[in-house]
Design goal:
two-stranded antiparallel sheet
């Protein structure tokens, strides 16, 4: 359990654990939407594990037959993308800041909105866009970040 009581296990070195605890606390304090998700997870018997990832994107793995907790893999250095920005989908010129808060909001969205069953393309754009629309964008708005128009890899 982390210091805020969230049933989350953060694995990795102390700098990573401190970064993730700080992000969780910041999201909880600055976003009603994120606070609702975090509070829901606090009351859930389901554990979530956050581990450092090796690339510049976050990802989530899901339990098989409910035997393992979901794992959020988060960039170990907290940096998404290749330059701190993500451009919109083709035809859009909007540049969206890629900050750790947005990344964690998106990955938490995957925990509370599980993927549809069956085989999926990677990325599953309808599913990714649902997470953006229902979770990431409302949190981003509360943090003063611009709306993301669609899912693109960072």
């Amino acid at each position: 359990m982390d210091p805020s009581g969230l049933d989350i296990e953060i694995v990795g070195g102390e700098p990573f654990k401190n970064m993730m605890n700080g992000l969780i606390d910041k999201l909880h304090k600055k976003s009603k939407t994120a606070a609702g998700i975090i509070d829901r997870l606090r009351k859930s018997p389901q554990k979530v594990v956050i581990a450092p990832g090796s690339n510049n994107q976050g990802s989530v793995t899901y339990p098989r037959q409910g035997t393992n907790p979901p794992f959020i893999f988060f960039p170990g250095n907290g940096k998404f993308g290749n330059g701190g920005t993500e451009t919109g989908s083709p035809g859009h010129s909007k540049v969206v800041p890629v900050v750790p808060e947005r990344g964690l909001a998106h990955e938490l969205g995957h925990v509370v909105i599980p993927p549809p069953p069956g085989e999926r393309k990677s990325p599953d754009l309808p599913y990714e866009n649902e997470v953006i629309r229902k979770i990431e964008n409302p949190i981003a708005k509360e943090l003063g970040l611009p709306k993301r128009t669609s899912y693109d890899h960072f």
